[in-house]
Amino acid sequence: NSESDKNQIRQILSLICYKQGDYAEATKIMEELFVTYKTTTVYGTLGYYKILSGSEDMYSFNEEAYEYNSDNKVIIDNKIILHLKKEEYEEARSLSQKSIDAGNQGVEIYYHAGQAEEGLGNTEKALEYYRMARSCTRSFMTTISEAEIEAAIDRLDDMETEETEDEA
Q: How many whole angstroms separate alpha carbon 18 and alpha carbon 107?
């Protein structure tokens, strides 16, 4: 039907704006769509945009999204990002584990799991997750750059090297 087509076109247009770096326009399009079209995809995408822009309602919106669908990998990942922002590493680790246990894979899942473990001081486990993130297939929509992953691995490799030298 034509309304469904219009909704899909709006989502695609929003993604194009996002990929071009126009987060304000991407968010505006999704917020307009959200008024009449509440789906898991819209909740996940808009929740991520709100995090990117530091929107005042990013926490409450992503909590609402989680209540709407607590099994969706994007919605879970958005909550993980927010826990990491608040340095709530136990909560971030718990949600990461929930997502991984549910069979979710991908650059973001493993990278954020690594950040949670790193925040908890678990260098070896963090490195393991970062390396898993590095080995994942990337897509057009991957939000974590290869450079971010390499920087995390290098940082922790350097820490482990220093620890080994200190012990010697």
A: 19
Name, in order, each residue with C-beta under 8 angstroms of 133's C-beta and a sequence gap of 6 or more.
107, 108, 109, 110, 111, 114, 144, 149
Euclidean distance between the first and the last CA atom of the chain, given in angstroms as a whole number: 70
- Positive or negative, the CA dihedral 73, 133, 52, 8 is negative
- What's the token pair of residue 162? 């220093």
Distance CA 160, CA 124 (A): 9
Calculate the average pLDDT of the chain: 93
CA-CA-CA-CA torsion sign (117, 19, 56, 77): negative
Q: Rounded distance, CA 6 to CA 59, Å?
A: 29
The size of the chain, in residues, is: 168
Note the pTM of the prediction, 2 decimals.
Answer: 0.89
| Single-letter amino acid, residue 79 | K
Cα 87–chain centre separation: 15
Q: Which of 163, 138, 164 is nearest to 149 (CA)?
A: 138
d(C-alpha 81, C-alpha 19), whole Å: 20
At 14-50, the pLDDT tens digits run: 999 998 989 889 999 999 999 999 999 999 999 999 9
In the chain, what are the helix, strand and coil shares in percent, each to the nearest 5?
80, 0, 20
